[in-house]
Amino acid sequence: MTQRRDAALFDMHRRNLLCSCCSGALLSLLPSLARAAYDMPARFERPDIATDEGGLWALMDREEEKLRHSRFLLGDAELQRYVSDIACRLAGNHCPDMRVYLVRTPFFNASMAPNGMMQVWSGLLLRAANEAQLAAVLAHEVGHYLKRHSLERMRDARSKSALAQFVGMALGVAGAGGVGSIAQLGVLAGMFAFSRENEREADAIGLDLMHQAGYDPMEASRVWAQLIDEKDGESSGGSLLFATHPASTERRDTLAQAAGKLGHEHDGATHADRYRAAIAPVRLAMLQDELRRRVPDSSLRLFDRLMTTQSRDGQLLYARAEALKARNEAGDAEQAMAALDEAESLPDTPAEAQRLRGQLLRMRGDHDGARAAFNRYLELKPTAPDAPMMRSYVGPH
C-alpha cells in the first residue's frame, strides 16, 4: 500500500508540477552572456519585519522550519556537508547566510529563497555527472540570490495570501506539506516565474562563480546537453525542468560559447571521482526513486549515460533491468535478464536484483529458478518489507 501511495505521489509530481516554481529549472533563450568577473556584493542585512521585504523573509523562515523537519530530507550528514561546502565556495562572503537542504524527490531541481534557504533535490544529485556539474547548478542559484531575483519575483505576487499558498505548495512537493495541494500548483506557478533577463543574469553570474571556484565552466553546458538527451522523444515525464518548456538547445550552446571565452586561469576541474564517492551511500535509493517515476524510456537513457560516464556497476545494471521490465516491449525481458547476469558477480549489486530475477523467471514459466532467486533474495534481505510475499512465492520448505 505504501509503495502504491509513493508511486502515486511521484506520478502527481510528473503530471502537475510546473518548473516555474523552481529557479534552477527555468528555461530561457539566451542571446548572449557577457564576460566580466562578477563583483560580489556585501552580505545582505535582515530587513525589518515591518517592511514588505521583512514580511517575505519571515514567511520563508516559517516554511524553512517546516522543511527542516520534513521526512523527505535525505538525512546523510556527510553528503550534506559536502554539498554545503560546494555552495559556500561559490557564495564567497555570503556563505554564513546560506543553509542547504537535500530533499529526496526524483526530479532535477535546485532553488534558493531570499532568506538564504537552498533546496537541492536528489534527482539533480543523481543526474550530475561530476562535482562541476552540481556546482554549475548551485552557482546559478547563488546568482539568483545575489541579484535578489526571488525577492523580486515574490514582490510581483498578486497577494500575500497567494504567495503563502504558493510557497506552502512548492515546499509541500518537496515533502514539507500536504500532498493534496500539489494539483493546484499549476494554477499559481505562472505568477512567480523568473523573467528571461533574470535567467540571463543568473547564468552569467553562475558561470563566472564556478570558474572562479576552479571548476570547468564547460560543464554548465553539458548539464543541459544531458537533460535534453534524457528528455528526447518523451511526450511527458522526463526531468522536472521540461514540464512546461521545450529543451533549450540554444541555452546549451550559449553557455558553451560563454565558457570558451573564460580563459584558463584554473585547471578546470570536474572532480568526478570525489563526487561519485560522496553520493555513493544514497545512490541506490535515488535510483529506486527514479524508477518510481514510471517513465522507463527517459530512465533508460539516464542509466545508460551514467554507465558511460561512471561505470557499469551492479546498481546501475539492476536499475536498467527494472526499467526494461517496466517498459515491457519486445525483447525487454531478455535484455533485463542479460543485465542481471552481468551484475551477478559485481560486489555492489543490490539484493533486489535477485527478486527481479525471480520475477523474470516466473514470467518465463521457470518456477524452480524463480524459487531459487527468491530464496537468495530472502537470505540477503530477510527483513525486507516484501519478505512475507516472497516467502509465499517460495512455498514451504
Overview of the molecule:
The protein is mainly alpha-helical and 397 residues long. Helices cover 59% and strands 3% of the residues. The chain has helices at 2-16, 52-68, 77-91, 122-127, 131-146, 149-155, 160-173, 185-189, 196-212, 218-231, 249-260, 272-291, 296-309, 314-327, 332-343, 352-364, 367-380, 387-394, and strands spanning 99-103, 110-112, 117-121. Strands 1-3-2 form a three-stranded mixed beta sheet, with helices on both faces. Helix 5 (131-146) packs across helix 10 and helix 13 runs antiparallel to helix 14. It starts with a helix and ends with a helix. Residues 1-35, 174-191 and 235-247 have low confidence and may be disordered.
Put the structure in a nutshell.
This protein is mostly helical.
Q: Spell out the helices and strands N to C.
A: HHHEEEHHHHHHHHHHHHHHH
Helix/strand/pairing category = mainly alpha
Radius of gyration: 22 Å
Share of helical residues? 55-70%
Uncertain regions spanning at least 5 consecutive residues? 1-35, 174-191, 235-247
Report the major sheet. Answer: 3 strands, mixed
How far is it from the N-terminal to the C-terminal residue, by CA?
Answer: 28 Å
Shape: elongated
Number of strands: 3
The chain-level mean pLDDT equals 80
Instruction: Tell me the strand order in the biggest sheet.
Output: 1-3-2
Estimated share of beta-strand residues: under 5%
